[in-house]
Amino acid sequence: MQKSALASTSIMIPAFLKAYQPQQLQNSRSGKVLVVVQFSGGNDGLNTIVPFRNDIYYQNRPSLGINANDVVQVSDQLGFNPALQALQSLYDDGLMSIINNVGYPNPDRSHFRSMDIWHTASDSSEYLSTGWLGRYLDSNCQGCEAAHGALELDDGLSLALKGAERKGYAMSDPGQLKKRTSNPLLKHLAKQTHHHEEENVAYLYKTLANTYSSADYLFEQSKVYRSTTAYPTTAFGKHLKQIAELISADTDTRIYYLSLSGFDTHANQKNQQERLLKQYAEGMKAFVNDLKKNDLLDDTLIMTFSEFGRRVKQNASRGTDHGTANNLFLIGGDIKRPGFYNEGPDLRNLDKGDLIYKVDFRNVYATILDKWLGSQPHTILNKSFRSMDFI
Amino acid sequence: MENINHLYWRAGFGLDLQEWQDKKNWSIQKAVDHLFAQAKQHSQQTISQDATAGIQPNMSDEQKAEARKRERRLVVLQSVDWIKRMASSDESPLLEKMSLFWHGHFACQSKNATLANNQLNTIRQHALGNFKDLVLAIARDPSMIRFLNNQQNKKLKPNENFARELMELFTIGRGNYTEQDIKEAARAFTGWSSNFKGEFIFRPGIHDYGRKTFFGKSGRFDGTDIIDMILEKRATADFIVTKIYRYFVNENVDVGIIADLSRQFYDSSYDIGALMRVIFTSDWFYTKQNRGTKIKSPVELMAGMLKSLDVDFENELALAFLQKSLGQSLFNPPNVAGWPGNKNWVDNSTLLMRLNLPAYLFHSKEVNFKLKEEFEARQKNKVTRRLMAKVDLSQIYTLVKGKALQEQLDLLSQYLFAQQPSLSIPLFERITRGKTEEETIKIQLIGLLSLPEYQMC
Q: What pTM was computed for the model?
């Protein structure tokens, strides 16, 4: 039986639909939801949050630099790439906190390594095989016991959601998931109560059972609420819409994870990056509106990051190469320090042409783990990182 | 017979039907002797078509990008070739399995097919030989040198990456050396490089000939000396034996057995073949707690299925798709620590892919899986709709036709499984009711291969 939600949210599910909840132990999603948006490929931060009053920026990007007149000048020194126009109302409403110069010591400029570092919250020279959110699941987090406690909108699961014992759940689309679980023999096996002495076999059967019960649950949940907001018609837009619908249906998933890829703009950056940022901004705007409509925005936090930024100087192919520190966005209804959290990039003091980080991304993680998800950051991150105050 | 299955799944990739019928009643001694004899006769793996030595210095940016793309594709084809080789009855299963282990141990992302193939052949040469020779060969391997940045390791500006991974992951393990040891070791490896043809070369101009202090000793050490000194420590034998034990026997270590094996390994001057022989002929290898306890890696699963089922994929790249979707891409481990294995292979997505594989192969059931985008790619990945494959079951039909259901199930599960599972006869009766004999056999096969127990070896 479903436990009732906390009073802080009002869930608009018609009473008759509650009958569709499958008979299983599950908590209602009471409490905060985290949505992680990953920009894959290394988004060029300098052309995302543009230091339009900084000469050094224009000197280094004679053709790639964004004209001050085109920049959405949300603040005195820093503004948005025009493709992020749709985010302006979010910024003006105090729903965004933008942290500049986020990175880590001894930055790695290889996609795989840097993304792994962000996923595992490791040091630059460490190799971990579990992700920070996976370890959060391992920590017996309240309200995320179900296999779908952390849900990735993809056919495969990212390292970020892999714990030692518990893992997140990959589902690109509830209809697809239903087809993948339609095999009658597997359905039968999933429902068996097996007793296995052998640990790994038991793990397989347990994962199978959880896979099926979560698949059924998510499929039912996906039918509860239909958003009428217009999202971008891309895969990213569809995934965001799916998440909004699941949150609005009071699904007991605490963490959602999704990616937008194509940011590795070594050549002909302008149009490629604009396309992606526009998709992102319009998607975010629709998403925030949806949650606001259902009074769920206060309980939702969206973190957007990329595995690294790009070099200050443009290259010879009208693009930029792999860099280091980057900006990171936090969006939600409960942002305590809206606007720009800290100063923009220091273009005067570079490390061989790359930005030097000022905020270790693990401080951002620690803050979220501590204040948003109510867990113990130092056990999950294997080290002490001080929380910040954006929430 | 169960011992034979267990041996061949751990020392190889299972048995095909002919092999199983021939060998199922062999003694372990005979089987082990045969495995080692086969390993001595291996052939070099050749590179598939159109191999070049990779990116040349005088290429334009565009040519380089094209070359990179071509190379990536060739590496993928090479990985498919290797899986087929693992499944082939003409090759040595023990050598291929041992090479797979070392490939995961000396984890290296190879961007060039020629270099990847050379590295793999180098591994094969020493896989069952002497560990010191193997380490030295890997330290001189161009693909490894490039992956761990030893090209950039120069006198006056040493790059510690290779020295660090050599000690931390490839030989002695953490806690047995200091940061200073790494710094000094890095100096010893300066100049170990490769040329544009993809060959090892020593560049004396950038080698640091000065005195180094390593493990408390001083001298004008070079890389070979460092490797000698690392292997002089028993801790290296401990580290390697532990890794081998966890891969081939059980992920949970038996401290006493490992201590014994390590002593033997060290005293034999790191004879890998001798070590493996001891493992495969020891009683404890065949105890219940070591059987059917390992979750097959994606590659073991694929090679095993190819071997036992005579599968013919219409599109070669099906095996590339499966590597990616199941989380193990040969020549492309996630990082230098390799693949952790066992539970790490399994989440809801990979489990569904594994358990649905028989349906995908036999029924052409829709897969509809979209892989995660490559970081560098500008185009989106396509959705993989189906895995088109032909499975020739004629030999299996001959084996079991005319027999009662229970007997058929028994035979099939004895053949397919490393460790026979307990089966629900009523379930199989139900799903085969009213079917022709051919259909019945096929249904049994699919049913057995879809069991979680089939994922174990």
A: 0.93
